[in-house]
User: Fold these one by one.
Assistant:
Number 1:
Amino acid sequence: MSFPPSTELPRFPAGFLWGAATSAYQVEGAAAEDGRTASIWDTFCRTPGKVFQGHTGEVAVDHYHRFREDVRLMAELGLTAYRFSVAWPRVQPTGHGPGVQLGLDFYRRLADELLAAGITPVATLYHWDLPQELESAGGWPERATAERFAEYAALVGEALGDRVGHWTTLNEPWCSAFLGYGSGVHAPGRTDPVAALRAAHHLNLGHGLAVTALRGVLPGAARLSVALNLHAVRPLTPSAADRDAARRIDAVGNRVFLGPMLEGFYPEDLLADTAHLTDWSFVRDGDPKEIHQPLDWLGVNYYTPTVVSATAEGATPAREDGHGGGTASPWPGADRVGFHRAPGERTAMGWAVDPSGLHQLLTDLARRHPDLPLMVTENGAAYVDEPDADGAFDDPERAAYIHAHLAAVHRARADGADVRGYFTWSLLDNFEWAYGYAKRFGLVHVDFPTQTRTPKSSAGWYARVARTGELHPPVAP
Ligand code: FCB
């Protein structure tokens, strides 16, 4: 195998964070241990027909018990950062009151193990596992949930602030609001467009209140962020109607969060597009200001572009938005917008491989918010990984996917985007929400019945890139 001389390879600066990401419900298991109670995902998984073959995160990949082995794997992969999430129902089971020390101890031990291995811990406070008790009281459509989230954030910040320097409030609030309460393909499975918009606002508010609460308890050097799954929206054709469809999806997909969080207001066009559903009177005076807190970096999760068109009178809009089926739409106020698969190669999720969408998002953000450092907090691909005769997993498609997206990050940096790190989704194969264990995103294969971890060939390649900071091609040219 021959590689070009390393001086010709795209290079990332020293200190660039090379990471992998997971989330609590997808990897931890230990669902009923040490005081953890049910989250909305435990309930959803038990509801017939919601998750592929009735799979649950009860055991997941047993990270709760195997985190030491998993940190060793990360060290072997040359990772310099690990993005994990804290399970709210593990550390504050009812969503109220004092923290559960046994639950907090798990994250203390995890952070200590990471620090000892020279790996920067990056903690996300909410990756979709709302305590069921808060959902039973109304969930994210209710303002009280935002207030509870800020209290929980302070509690975790106090417990881990001496060890964890990088914090993310919410992961992909778009999914929480619009897949959780709009299309219902995610927990809690409601299908009510107004509830979805109310949830979006209270997630925004929860973010703002949590940032304020965290600033009160964390050391000054702590770096706070939010991770958004921004949609790289493209009109199917250059027609005015398709461009308006793209504007509409940009509003309810991206600017519904970017507006209040980064600019302090909801976009006028979003309010107009959804005026037939709600007058947004759940937004109280002062809320946009509360939401608009200075951030130290922004996390961008990206997998595939979003191609949209206006739908002709009488025709049924195409629904290939990559966000699962369901009869209800996750796009309030956009009933006439059609969603199309972008052309080209696809992953096992059916998502088109198109790194230009990542470049587009990063450079657009850099133009609009030149002083806000960025990190790619999720990017990766599911493929069908089969062992060869020796039990090894060769996954050149995954390495090619990550390579192409890292090249896009490198180009975006050259074009002025201040991207400070990249986290591939995911470290390990894990519980992929409504798809259960049927979709594998890991650099490391997990044999679910035995919990055996086997790094795939993509892991070896990624380790080389992380160690050298050079974007080596995954296969010899
Ligand atoms: C993202 C989620 C993450 C994972 C990937 C594939 O939307 O944040 O948990 O499921 O998709």
Note: Residues 23, 26, 171-172, 175, 229, 301, 378, 425, 432-433, 441 surround beta-D-fucopyranose (CB under 6 Å).
Number 2:
Amino acid sequence: MTTTVAQHTPAPRPGADADSSDAASTPAAKAAPERHNLLGMSREQMEAFFLSIGEKKFRAAQLMKWIHQEGSDDFAAMTNLSKPLREKLAQVAEIRGPGVIYEGTSSDGTRKWVLEVEDGSYVETVLIPAENGKRRTLCVSSQVGCSLDCSFCSTGKQGFQRNLTAAEIIGQVWVAQRSVGPRRDTANRPVTNVVMMGMGEPLLNFDNVVPAMKLMLDDNGYGLSKRRVTLSTSGVVPMIDKLGDEMDVSLAISLHAANDELRNELVPINRKYNIRALLDACHRYLAKCPDNRQITIEYTLIKDVNDQQEHAEQLAVLLKELPCKVNLIPFNPFPNSGYEKPSRNQTMRFQQWLYDAGYNATVRTTRGEDIDAACGQLVGRVKDRTKRSARHIQSVQLDAD
Ligand code: SAH
Ligand code: SF4
């Protein structure tokens, strides 16, 4: 694989002058008002911001294009704005994305970024090319860690640290697009699809995930169609309903088991919202989508746990009424998980059992394994948040080589 290790350049903090290391310690700098970070603002929020500084609403669309389509973070370069406005913006606002700690490309073309967010936590973002490079799917994180503790997920083992802000969520798309190159035209986007399948449970960070997804869809933002933005959830039922009231992006459900006893073990939130409640929520969600839509059912295959014929048969019966496609994900092992990946033959047998029952299930091939970018490995080797040092960056590099 090829590896590019970026300089450790954490994003400057609000009110601090990035070019002057001692500025923050002066009394004047301490008293400096916080600048508004425009990166995570939805169109409505940005319009309100411009009105609040005595400018016209239409400036929002101009700024959004600069930020999200050109990947700019420099007001001075925004040549269709007057000089006084550019100077005013530099005083009161900023465009501050996450700092890039590490960037690597796997031998299969998968690219991964380790990003440092506000409090020094790390999140990871992965860009997966497919269909001869025509599709480039970005896997985006929504939280640092996760509170739901699914038994086969390394993010769950890490515990919950905090929700990402809207700027930190859309900042992942922004960083990936800037690295790959600015969008030239709609047919040639650096990022063609987004899946909220990175670290965290997106529906437990609804208030930040929804504005970030709106920016993904906005014509002045990333302009992706709602079918190309997918939210994956382990089944936070009331929030599925709430999502359906706000937007109709594609929905993926992390099912992994077709009976409550087994799902309680694998996906503990099932004890609160069981399979029946979850499938009912899926039907309600689809009823709100104006077009013909299917739910994606994610099923992580774990050796001798949920990969037997009886499990495939139960799954087929369970999903009979739901317009859906099934995506089988062979378990990605991590240290001390206690689980194993099924053999390739067993995976194919499971796929065949579903096929015999009338389902055309796809098997998700594991991508980016050599840079720890595969599903469930997103925590990778980036665990120790307290040692944000050259030594740490070096260890990431060694793991990636
Ligand atoms: N929290 C959300 C989204 C992030 S997880 C959810 O659970 O849906 C994204 C997908 O990766 C989920 O389907 C999850 O079950 C799967 N996954 C997690 N750990 C895995 C592992 N070790 N091997 C294979 N898939 C895994
Ligand atoms: Fe959280 Fe999803 Fe991992 Fe479960 S699978 S612990 S919900 S990130």
Note: The longest strand covers residues 122-130.
